[in-house]
Amino acid sequence: MLILSDVTIKLAEKFLFQNFHASIDAGDVLCIMGPSGCGKSTLLDYLSGSLSPAFHASGELHLNNRELSRLPIEKRKVGILYQEALLFPHLTNLENLMFAIPDTIKGKRRQELALDKLAEFNLSDKAHSLPDLLSGGQKARIALLRTLLSEPEYLLLDEPFGKLDATLRESVRAFVLEQIQAAQLPTLLVTHDADDADAMGNKVIHLSI
Question: Residue 27 is part of which domain span?
């Protein structure tokens, strides 16, 4: 479970969040909805450990009784998906996946894990091609698989469906939710799209400017 307790974030004298509380169970998605400028991305930055020093933040962030708020991003075991897939264009899709696998896994096992994940989702034929040759839905799937191979303990979604057309968005949302539930990851999604919130989460918090 991911728990936010008494989280306060402000920029100069402006409060974006004040004594904010939320909890997310393993395999559940909490959706944060609101217009641009309401603080959605700032909250994600706080949760990931990448909040700009220009902001002042206080409160506590616990994951399974481990306090995270004072840890740098590389120590938090967090997975992040953005609106752009952010795949390395000069690496093959297989190499993109292998890049995310923790250093504790050595040698041929790294490639085996990545190939197994591609096969599991019928993407084996894309292993040795570059990301530019993928469709939008395939890029979204590869990006999620890369994140899962990094062995995160919680997941942050920053409007990852925003650039997909309506039909593709529906199938990719279903795929992402299925993987979140299978991996039992507490997940926070920020979006301004009510359909995303309805499809992904059983809890929605609405923010305003």
Answer: 2-87+134-206
